[in-house]
Amino acid sequence: MDFDPSRLLRKATGRAKSDVANKLVSMLLHELSRRITLRSGLSVNGEVYSRLATEFFGQNCPYCGRGLVARHVAVEHLDGMNRRRAGLHIPGNVVLSCSDCNREKRRDDQAVELKLAESGWESFLSHDSTRCVQSCKSCDYWASLFPDPATRAKHLALSRERILEFRRTPAIAAAIEASLEAQGSVKNVLESFYREGQLYAQTKIAELAESVLTVR
Known about the structure:
Number of domains: 1
Structural class: mainly alpha
Number of helices: 8
Shape: globular
Oligomer: single chain
Low-confidence stretches: none
Distance between the termini: 39 Å
Radius of gyration: 20 Å
């Protein structure tokens, strides 16, 4: 056996405790998304937004530019929908990407502090192998797709500008502006909200478990 079973079991137990808190964060972000969507009058799952996104990006990944294949496509939040990035499920922040880029971008989405850009998607598209440590996995990912440094830097810059242009589209600009304003406020409370949710879940679970075992 080439792995430590006890370490994996401890990791699974710890993850279970944080799942509740992460779900609360997700519920808050979805509620903010719902309210902003109602105000903007444009829905992510509506035909108008679908047409806008398709006309802009076609059937290509907005990050790497490769064609999207049905079994390898992911619904992608440009600003990650978690407590680190506080992204929302609103027009202008939801696109389709390839599953590879969706997976690789998670490192930037989950980083406590971004050093290359202010948003997760911009940071992901800034890994051009000139500003990170040699062991950077994101830089390695882009180097594997675009081995030539000049071609890589040009592609990353064009992809960043293309996404910025998309988010400036008049039909969705209002939703993006409202989202950025909300992010500025909610980021200040998400971490404490997460910790409070985690503490509540642990306390309540312990109380209920004790009461159940006492009854028995």
